[in-house]
Specification:
mainly alpha; globular; 76% helix
Amino acid sequence: MARKILFAGLALAPLAAVLRWAFDTGDVPVFLVSALALVPLAWVIGEATEQAAEHTGPAMGGFLNASFGNAPELIIALFAVADGLPDVVRGSITGSIVSNLLLVLGLALVATDEEELNWRSLVSNLGLVVWAVLLFLIPSVPGWHGNPDLRSQSATRRPPAPHSWSLSKALLTLGIATGATALVSEILVHTLEGFTKSAGLSRFFVSAVIVAIVGNAAEHGGAIVVARRGKIRLASEIAVSSAAQVALLVAPLAALLSFGVRPPLPLAFRPVELATIAGAALFVGAIVWDRRGTRREGLLLLVAYAAVAIAYGFSGNR
């Protein structure tokens, strides 16, 4: 039944496009339809990633999911820069990293029984996130005293299951679903400002919580789907490697590509943003240090994410 609902939900992607460009519907309904449209697309990407992992192993499967899933995040960043919303870019990048580490990994651990984790890979990726925070300090610190918009595999492979997809089919499905996700993400960005004003929320909160979650729905949905099937190693790889990719690839790449759309992205993060990114990485490191994941630890991660989201709600746009 759930699969039928998700299949039917794929119609929301073209519906969002029709509402946006054919009927010029208001920003609030288009934003909501776009956000909902990302859920079934995330499920498709999760399915395709799991099938690809049957051929490549969980470490490469997590990398594939993070790579395909982070394409919309990069597109969201570029459209937000073009629309003159640098704070939305910083918020979505910050929220993407934190939500992957706390929300996605937490849900994945809650969805499965206690299992051994791929400790070496997880700790390596968490170290990359902390290193990215140190690099972010270089352009960020000057902005704290002035204008914040200052310009500046160790897993073992298993043989494919008897009824698994071919690798080419899985990769083709990933590509198509990611392209559709990118289109919906573009619609989402262009309606974000109107939704923010109507909902009475700060742009930073909407970008760091709502946009970050739906913009990374591919990784979120994929990690939870595979975790429910008992593949916590793959699920944890998706969550943590995605956070590392956003920190070390999406953020600087968005800054570089933004020079082509003008104005360039001010990659200057506020203390609350850098503190929550570093804190999330260190907290997850402490959780996985015993090399196992439990439901109780998953709940702790979810509580931590709720606390961060509340803090974002009080932090305002600057």
